[in-house]
């Protein structure tokens, strides 16, 4: 090694050494402060997530997760309202922060809110049921003064019950359309599954949304999932459903029958419903939606084939062959008949297409029956 390169090495060492010690020092300092803040996080007591029950001047009654209630102070000038979710400090339970509503959930993500566009003429059969719904839901929403003048109270809610596919959802949407009401749809079984621990709160939010968007109709599909009579409320899941159900009753009791919100429940399991739901002032009008009779099947067939290009189709013959079909199945026949025509490259649908569709769907329902009986 020559003298020259040795010198170079010394110079390099001299250059590097002081900077690296300096850097290392910096690094240690910053990791020390990082660890200090981390350590303080571990030392900090957790805040409790509570529900504000009642606001009294500058204090608030809160419910802690184990169910006990306390009257506590609010730190600073946090505006707490009944129903808010708040964070409280553990020792004194002082409210130190309020969670924004959207923090827990955004209600419109879980309910369907729409202005439907279904006309009464889209519903086949069910004339009596339509008249009753017009009288007890549509009229009070459109002309509450008639009821005020005469002094009678229309029901706050009605219950549509009957077999699947008979038009319950369709009717609820039709009355929302004719009453120019916002349609808020919840499926009770989903509400129960998704909202472990928050069901009761969601019910409250749904009603406040309904008031905000009034006139409105709250449609609760599969209401039996929420309101089945419970023999054993011991399991915690069951207790939660029970709480959600109680909140629903509280909300229904809390508004007047002429407020412009109506509730329509739907179920295929009328037999299991808790009688508390059906007491006067709640769902006190029960409307049965049966399977369509021959005349109704004809109307439903006509409704769903209205826009189809038909060629010599004998409606009477078809209708006589589909005894026991529900409305949804009658609609499916029209769609299937259309497919048979498409497969044969025709641009109109003939009687034979309908016959084949009936055959196909009857076969299918036989299979389903078989599966139900023999597993
Ligand atoms: N009476 C009817 N008139 C016209 N179409 C009907 C009728 N009943 C059912 N349909 C057709 O069947 C579809 C399904 O009906 P809908 O969803 O209203 O039944 P549902 O009674 O609510 O059934 P589920 O109990 O399964 O919820 C409707 O969108 C409609 O196209
Ligand atoms: Mg339905």
Walkthrough of the structure:
With 375 residues, this protein is of the alpha/beta class. It has three domains: 54 residues, Nucleic acid-binding proteins (OB fold (Dihydrolipoamide Acetyltransferase, E2P), Beta Barrel); 182 residues, Rossmann fold, CATH 3.40.50.300; 81 residues, Helicase, Ruva Protein, domain 3 (Orthogonal Bundle). The strands form three sheets. The chain has a six-stranded mixed sheet, sandwiched between helices. The radius of gyration is 32 Å and the shape is extended. The model has no long low-confidence stretch (mean pLDDT 86). Adenosine-5'-triphosphate binds next to helix 5, helix 10 and helix 12.
The CATH topology of the largest domain is given as: Rossmann fold
Q: Report the total helices.
A: 13
Q: Which structural class do the helices and strands define?
A: alpha/beta
Judging from the principal axes of the Cα atoms, what is the shape?
extended
Encode the helix/strand succession as letters.
HEEEEEHEHHEHEHHEHHEEHEHHEH
Strand order of the largest sheet: 6-8-9-10-7-11
* CATH homologous superfamily assignment of the largest domain: P-loop containing nucleotide triphosphate hydrolases
Oligomer, anyone?
A: single chain
Low-confidence residue ranges: none
| CATH architecture descriptor name of the largest domain | 3-Layer(aba) Sandwich
CATH class of the largest domain: Alpha Beta
Features:
375 residues; alpha/beta; OB fold (Dihydrolipoamide Acetyltransferase, E2P); Rossmann fold; Helicase, Ruva Protein, domain 3; 5-stranded antiparallel beta sheet; binds adenosine-5'-triphosphate; binds magnesium ion
